Amino acid sequence: MKRRDFLKLSAATAGATLIPVHMIQAQEEHLSPEDPQAKALKYVEDSEIEGQHCNNCIHAKGDLEAEWVGCNLFPNKQVKGSGWCSVWAARG
Ligand code: SF4
């Protein structure tokens, strides 16, 4: 392999490794209650219904003890563990 080809390959590889880092950061973005889908589902960051929170909802995923958790309804976002929306369902 020529030196110039090696440098091109190295540059391409370096660029490729940056893409997953950006994707990971996007996955950690917090869901805003102002998000149109969040509004449609009446999502709030602090549930007003006793015993119903994102961190005990069947749609939550990840570390359910964390302040922010994943949600199957909002891919690439995190919802507040103390939050709630209209499709909350108890974990089995
Ligand atoms: S589906 Fe469950 S975890 Fe997701 S926002 Fe609604 S209540 Fe929270």
Describe this structure in words.
The structure is a single chain. Residues 21-26 have low confidence and may be disordered. A hairpin with a 6-residue loop joins strand 2 and strand 3. The termini are far apart. This protein has helices at 3-27, 36-40; strands spanning 29-30, 60-61, 68-71, 77-80. With 92 residues, it is α+β, with helices and mostly antiparallel strands. It has a four-stranded mixed sheet with strand order 1-4-3-2. It has two domains: 1-28; 31-92, High-Potential Iron-Sulfur Protein, Chain A (Irregular), CATH 4.10.490. The radius of gyration is 19 Å and the shape is elongated. The protein binds iron/sulfur cluster (SF4).
Q: How are the SSEs ordered, and which strands pair?
A:
Elements: H1 3-27, E1 29-30, H2 36-40, E2 60-61, E3 68-71, E4 77-80
Parallel strand pairs: 1-4
Antiparallel strand pairs: 2-3, 3-4
Iron/sulfur cluster (SF4) binds near residues 57, 79 and 88.
Helix vs. strand class: alpha+beta
Shape: elongated
- Which CATH architecture of the largest domain is right? Irregular
Instruction: Report the major sheet.
Output: 4 strands, mixed
| Ends apart, CA distance between termini | 58 Å
Please give the CATH class of the largest domain.
Few Secondary Structures
Q: Which ranges are low-confidence, i.e. pLDDT below 50, for 5 or more consecutive residues?
A: 21-26
- How many strand elements? 4
Q: Approximately how much beta-strand content do the residues carry?
A: 5-15%
With strands numbered from the N-terminus, the spatial order across the biggest sheet is: 1-4-3-2
CATH superfamily of the largest domain: High potential iron-sulphur protein
Q: List the ligand species.
A: iron/sulfur cluster
CATH topological fold name of the largest domain: High-Potential Iron-Sulfur Protein, Chain A
Nearest-integer average pLDDT: 84
**Radius of gyration, CA atoms, in whole angstroms:** 19 Å
Number of helices: 2
